[in-house]
């Protein structure tokens, strides 16, 4: 027990010595920096309103009504209205607007005739691929609804029926969309949380892949092999603890002040962060076991953290990936953490519903720890055999 405590203390001393990565500082600084940058630069609790300019060449009562209704919706903000042709490039320059809505001349006249479908133009600025997707969907839905209302009134006047009956004839079925878990398109829920975990894991990964090299350079490798496997595992606990503390420190204020959604119990989420930090360090030791210097392990960090970020569903929906990828992705700790974060934070699942996931994650941690144990004891046996041979050679001489 004393050796285990001494091993943990030695890792803290290494962080504070100035001769190794000061992980206790780097972890907190990275988490705080990412939170500040993403949180300040992104929208959170407010509904995203796409800024759109309108070129209204019809200048009719109908076009004015359409503009007013669009502007009062929760998804579109009409920034400018022109009644003469204007260059689309000028209206979208400097990111003033994400698109331009074009009402051609004769709009009201053609709609009242009801003899053909009239098209309204929308020029979408796709210099940023993500900014127009939701805006186009919302515009299409609103234009279709407003058009159906107008047609229902005209047809009802001709058929002497109620506008509700005619609208039911024109639009017998309608889909009402409900945004689950992130209805306000809060950036802190997706981008901020994804990058906090990713960059915090990057720092932990970079620190962990240098551990084996540090042990050998500092002449501690023999002591680690002699102290036992429990002492080696104990050396990873400070890093997992700091990893969990740093992430909790930056996410807690966002949750408390209503800038980040967390529907579940945060205390039930903490074990998953500890397990993730520990798993990253275990994998780092496995892939860098034969390195002789800290710098040799640096490049191997890309095998541990980035795959989990790419495949974990943080920014790319898992449904787009093949079935085998959705299985292989669980070989990386960050994939598990993103799963737990979505279930606890966005979906608000209780602990009872997460026990199965915790059991699976515990099995994963057990497997990779067992792999590390096999590698460790194989090296330990070879070490003691070499030590015995050296002792015999010494006795002969």
Can you offer a commentary on this structure?
With 397 residues, the chain is mainly α. It folds into two domains: 2-43 and 187-396; 50-170, abc type-2 transporter like fold (3-Layer(aba) Sandwich), CATH 3.40.1710. The chain has helices at 2-17, 23-41, 61-71, 88-92, 107-113, 133-159, 163-170, 187-208, 211-217, 221-227, 229-234, 237-256, 266-287, 294-297, 306-311, 323-328, 333-346, 351-396; strands at 50-56, 76-82, 99-103, 121-124. The chain has a four-stranded mixed sheet with strand order 2-1-3-4. Strand 1, helix 3 and strand 2 form a beta-alpha-beta unit. Helix 13 (266-287) runs parallel beside helix 18. The protein is elongated and about 110 Å long. The two termini are 38 Å apart.
Q: Which key terms come to mind for this protein?
A:
397 residues, mainly alpha, abc type-2 transporter like fold, 4-stranded mixed β-sheet, 64% helix, 6% strand, elongated
Number of domains: 2
Gap from first CA to last CA: 38 Å
- The percent range for strand residues is 5-15%
What integer is the average pLDDT?
Answer: 79
Helix count equals 18
Helix and strand composition category? mainly alpha
Largest sheet, strands/sense/barrel: 4 strands, mixed
Following the backbone from N to C, one meets helices and strands in this order, namely HHEHEHEHEHHHHHHHHHHHHH
What is the number of E strands? 4
Widest sheet: strand ordering: 2-1-3-4
Radius of gyration: 30 Å
Would you identify the regions where 5 or more consecutive residues have pLDDT less than 50? 44-48, 172-180
How would you describe the shape?
Answer: elongated
Percent range for helical residues? Answer: 55-70%
């Amino acid at each position: 027990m004393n050796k285990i405590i001494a091993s943990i203390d030695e890792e803290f001393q290494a962080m504070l010595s100035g001769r190794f990565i000061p992980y206790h500082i780097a972890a907190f600084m990275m988490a705080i920096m990412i939170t500040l940058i993403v949180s300040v630069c992104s929208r959170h609790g407010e509904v995203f309103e796409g800024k759109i300019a309108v070129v209204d060449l019809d200048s009719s009562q109908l076009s004015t009504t359409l503009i007013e209704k669009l502007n009062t919706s929760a998804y579109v903000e009409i920034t400018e209205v022109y009644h003469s042709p204007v260059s689309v490039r000028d209206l979208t320059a400097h990111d003033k607007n994400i698109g331009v809505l074009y009402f051609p001349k004769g709009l009201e006249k053609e709609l009242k005739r009801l003899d053909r479908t009239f098209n309204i133009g929308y020029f979408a600025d796709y210099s940023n691929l993500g900014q127009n997707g939701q805006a186009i969907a919302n515009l299409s839905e609103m234009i279709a609804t407003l058009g159906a209302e107008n047609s229902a009134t005209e047809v009802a006047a001709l058929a002497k029926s109620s506008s509700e009956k005619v609208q039911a004839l024109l639009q017998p079925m309608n889909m009402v969309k409900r945004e689950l878990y992130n209805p306000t398109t809060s950036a802190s829920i997706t981008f901020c949380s994804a990058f906090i975990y990713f960059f915090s894991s990057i720092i932990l990964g970079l620190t962990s892949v240098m551990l084996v090299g540090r042990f050998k350079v500092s002449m501690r490798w023999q002591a680690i092999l002699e102290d036992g496997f429990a002492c080696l595992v104990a050396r990873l606990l400070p890093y997992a603890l700091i990893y969990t503390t740093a992430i909790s420190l930056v996410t807690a204020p966002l949750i408390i002040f209503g800038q980040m959604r967390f529907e579940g119990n945060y205390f039930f989420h903490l074990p998953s962060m500890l397990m993730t930090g520990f798993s990253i360090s275990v994998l780092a030791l496995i892939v860098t076991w034969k390195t002789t210097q800290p710098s040799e392990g640096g490049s191997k960090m890309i095998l541990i953290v980035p795959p989990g970020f790419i495949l974990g569903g943080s920014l790319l929906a898992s449904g787009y990936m093949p079935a085998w990828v959705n299985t292989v992705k669980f070989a990386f700790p960050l994939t598990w953490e993103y799963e737990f974060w979505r279930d606890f934070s966005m979906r608000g699942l209780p602990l009872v519903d997460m026990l199965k996931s915790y059991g699976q994650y515990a099995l994963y941690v057990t497997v990779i720890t067992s792999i590390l144990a096999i590698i460790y004891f194989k090296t330990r046996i070879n070490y003691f055999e070499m030590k015995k041979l050296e002792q015999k050679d010494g006795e002969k001489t």
